[in-house]
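re: that chain from earlier
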Amino acid sequence: METAAGFYDAALELARATNDPADIANALYNASFPRSFAADTRPRAISLLEESLAMYRSFGDRAGTARAMWGLANALYFAGEYNRSRDLLIEDVAMLRGSEDRFSLGWALHTLGLTYNGLGEHERARQPWLEALRIFADSKDVSGIVLLLDDLAVLAAREENRPRAIRLHAAAQQIAGAGGVNLATFVDRMEMRGPTEAWYREPTLAPAIEEGRAMSLEQAVSYAQETEGAAS
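^ sequence. v structure.
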């Protein structure tokens, strides 16, 4: 990440020399990205993103504004500033609904659900996550589907529905392994309190684990969308 940050910093310096606001706003966003995930560099990422967002807003670039808004909300989420992150994401989702950028809308909805989860408003995460799952499923985005299966596993775990949580988690793990996707443990690393390794050693959950692992991509998506049957 340090090497990437150095390259992006050099690009930002060059962009500032051009005095082109669009180039500068884009370079600011790019320079923020490798700094968003580590606690020691995150304040710098937030500062860069705030400047990028302000610039995009100033010259009315809706796509750039939406992108910088998500980037800032994402960094704020990782910083634990859930309220500010949520407010930005609500605005971002509203803006993206008027565009054709379904991929960005899916990611904004995913992150919005994370903020509700972080605020302890777990049930409010359900609809953003289900909508994001539909978006990723429609576009056959396996990485996005895996991420949302894990999100919804967290929700089931919060509701103390361990068989449903472990089915979703096991399905995500299996699909990720088959497709070479490395996002299946992302939720665990974020400490969202979904299924843990210990769950996989519990004899009573063994049937649910096998059921999850046996699901195809389409079956896992269908199961995740069964809100009426979420108690089983």
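Residues 162-179 form the longest helix (18 residues).
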